[in-house]
Write a structure and sequence with these properties.
- By secondary structure, the chain is an alpha/beta fold.
- The chain folds into two domains: 129 residues, Aspartate Aminotransferase, domain 1; 227 residues, Aspartate Aminotransferase, domain 2 (3-Layer(aba) Sandwich).
- It is built from ten helices and 13 strands.
- The strands form three sheets. It has a seven-stranded mixed sheet, sandwiched between helices. Strands 9-10-13-12 form a four-stranded antiparallel sheet, covered by helices on one side. The protein has a two-stranded parallel ribbon with strand order 1-11.
- Strand 3, helix 5 and strand 4 form a beta-alpha-beta unit.
- Helix 4 packs parallel to helix 5 and helix 7 crosses helix 10.
- The protein starts with 19 loop residues before the first strand and ends with a helix.
Length: 382
């Protein structure tokens, strides 16, 4: 159980006069929002002090760790919490590549930070293999590994559970890695937070995917792996350990609520995703939908509208009180072209992204598709 009692559902509605929100940023779930004040009140002290209330906070943090571990299905002692998602990527990859001289394998559709590590690793005289893909978004991990196995060369494989722009889900690697190798599992956009590979060396999660807060990230470090702390030796700590204690308590609450409703929520999202795909195909001309409903995260839908400027469609939809995303989810600018869709062969323009939530309804989809159709047709007619 989570350390602070939560009230309310884990999803929020776009009712009333609020915009109909299909953006990728979910914000806090209702359960997390209702626990904010109590979490900050409970975690305002230094848990290392000897006072009674500090001891109470230590117990709350212990319970939060145990709750998160149980819901992610990892040992509690494997968990590390950091105060920023970018630092989690740095810690995971730097620790995997520390004193490593084999090959670093990652996908062309990975986040830009992963590409940056690959370039730096190569510039240091090592081998980086960037896996390419087609419009399916599937990455050929096993083909690359066969070559490394034949050469008896260790590898660090950065494996992405699902892509946060397209929703494309990667299959788990079905062959054993070479000796002294490691798998870094990116679970930041996974369909289910707990479905990480069993043979992970290090895995990372973004609490925002399950209605948790920004400003905290989760790492699980397998003590049997070759991961090495990237920080200078300080006691026995693996990382600096600086993170917001209230946000940890809220993360535990949000994750517990998400896991409780997960089966029902995913079934509803799958129905919405299939319905939305069918509506777009039947009502909007010259639009490609990325992936299919059986191999993508049902929360995500990426489309490519030919002959339009995605930013203009986004702004026109906002005037209709319908919020969507355009361009890259991790580019330097909010509306920069998607390197993911471009790498998959969808060109460099017309990229639109839609994020579905359990609070959405079929009526919401009708409003979304109707607005998209009219704005795309109006743009093409101008």
């Amino acid at each position: 159980m989570s350390p602070i009692t939560a009230h309310g559902a884990s999803t929020s509605s776009a009712g009333g006069s609020a915009p109909l929100d299909f953006q990728s940023t979910d914000g806090l779930s209702d359960s997390a929002q209702h626990s904010l004040a109590k979490a900050f009140e409970s975690a305002s002290l230094d848990p290392q002090k000897l006072h009674h209330r500090s001891a109470q906070l230590r117990q709350l943090l212990h319970e939060a760790r145990e709750s998160i571990a149980a819901n992610l299905k990892v040992p509690a002692e494997n968990l590390e919490f950091v105060g920023e998602l970018g630092f989690a990527y740095w810690a995971a990859i730097s620790g995997a590549l520390k004193n490593f001289s084999g090959s670093f394998i990652h996908g062309v559709t990975d986040r830009q930070v992963v590409h940056a590590f690959g370039r730096e690793f190569a510039q240091a005289g090592n081998r980086t293999i960037t896996l390419t893909t087609d419009k399916s978004g599937n990455l050929p991990y096993e083909s690359a590994l066969h070559d490394s196995i034949s050469a008896k060369q260790p590898v660090v494989v950065f494996w992405q559970a699902a892509n946060r722009e397209t929703g494309v889900v990667q299959k788990e690697i079905g062959i054993s890695l070479p000796k002294n190798s490691m798998l870094v599992a990116d679970m930041t956009a996974a369909i289910s937070p707990s479905q990480r590979p069993n043979d992970y060396g290090v895995a990372l999660w973004d609490p925002r995917i399950f209605g948790g807060p920004e400003g905290l990230a989760i790492l699980a470090i397998n003590p049997d792996s070759n991961w090495r702390s990237p920080i200078p030796p300080i006691d026995k700590r693996r990382l600096f350990g600086a993170y917001s204690k209230p946000l940890l308590l809220i993360t535990a609450i949000a994750l517990e609520a998400q896991r409780k409703d997960e089966t029902k929520s995913l079934a509803h999202l799958q129905e919405l995703n299939s319905a939305l795909r069918a509506q777009i195909k039947s009502e909007i001309d010259e639009v490609e939908i990325v992936g299919d409903s059986t191999s993508t995260n049902p929360r995500s839908l990426a489309i490519v509208a030919r002959g339009v400027v995605a930013e203009e469609i986004l702004r026109a939809m906002e005037k209709r009180q319908i919020l969507i995303d355009a361009g890259s989810a991790c580019g330097a600018g909010a509306l920069s072209p998607s390197h993911v869709l471009e790498a998959m062969g969808f060109g460099d323009s017309g990229h639109l992204r839609i994020t579905l939530r359990a609070s959405h309804s079929v009526a919401d989809l009708n409003q979304l598709v109707g607005g998209l159709r009219e704005e795309i047709e109006r743009f093409r007619a101008d």
